[in-house]
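Handout for the seminar on molecular recognition.
Each group receives one record of this type.
Step one: identify the two inputs.
Step two: read the structure output and locate the region that could contact S-adenosylmethionine.
Step three: write two sentences on what you found, then compare them with the reference statements printed after the record.
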Amino acid sequence: MAPYDDFAWFYNRYWNEEFHSLAFPILERIWLARLGPKGHPGGRHGPHILDVCCGTGYLAGLLTAAGYRVTGVDASPRMVEFARRNVPAAKFHVGDAARCRLPGPFDAAVCTFDSLNHILAREDLEAALRHTAASLRPGAPFAFDMLLEDAYQTHWGESFALVRDDHALTITGSGYDFRSRLARCTITMFRLTEGVWRRSDVTIEERCYTPEEIGGALERAGFGELEIRPCPARSQPLQPEQDPAAGDGADIKLHDPGEVAVFARSAAASRNSCATRGASNPATRAEPAQRCAARAWGER
Ligand SMILES: C[S@@+](CC[C@H](N)C(=O)[O-])C[C@H]1O[C@@H](n2cnc3c(N)ncnc32)[C@H](O)[C@@H]1O
């Protein structure tokens, strides 16, 4: 069972809108602006986007509504089930981004919300980036975000609880181990269905990669011209209207207080050409990312 399977219902209900309301305007500016003309809303025409680790399809829904075609891939069958229900116009596949060949060719790719940090082994991260690169047309833009060390050292250990009449959840960050660079949090969930309370416990693990590791992996996968950009912090409480059942509003504070964006583009004909251009390596531009919690956006 994939770690997000049991979390999927809660994720679908609570974890999409806040993040994407901040991320989508950035994506529009730094990534979608580089794509060709959109199709009609509804997702039958227009540039074809690969959403790696697509979750429950919230971003796919925004992109489809904006006139793009979307194919999503996620390791969790339950997350994909929600995605298919949420966005019937998009296509979704269950698969491990590090292991499966992604369909293609796509005009762009995206991977949001720490998803690449969920890939714990460096060689798997590289494989996921390689598969993504292989599924893209030459020159196609790729945008993604990752947390850097400050994010794990600051808010990762915070706890969070949500209690409603028919569901409850606690998240306990069990901290960040700077030696292994692994961060863990435990999610305990209760749901009342058909008169019976059901409990499930999930541990989510993430790996912190340095900007140098991310840059190296991107370069080896064939991405280049990387930039890191600051992104807005996201720590606003979830608004009551996002959860009609919650009269008082849930105080969801996510774990990263600040974000940066990384940007990459490779030469169309020469996939590895960026390796010789020092200025294109995010390590050379990563200072803000090292200082604050970070998200990275890349472009092939
Ligand atoms: C924090 S969620 C983000 C979901 C979505 N991208 C979003 O922005 O809402 C992380 C997602 O990555 C997926 N995931 C983690 N490791 C994966 C892997 N190796 N291959 C594919 N999906 C993976 C999880 O199942 C989960 O849906």
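Reference statements: The chain has two domains: 8-146+213-298, 152-205. The mean pLDDT is 78.
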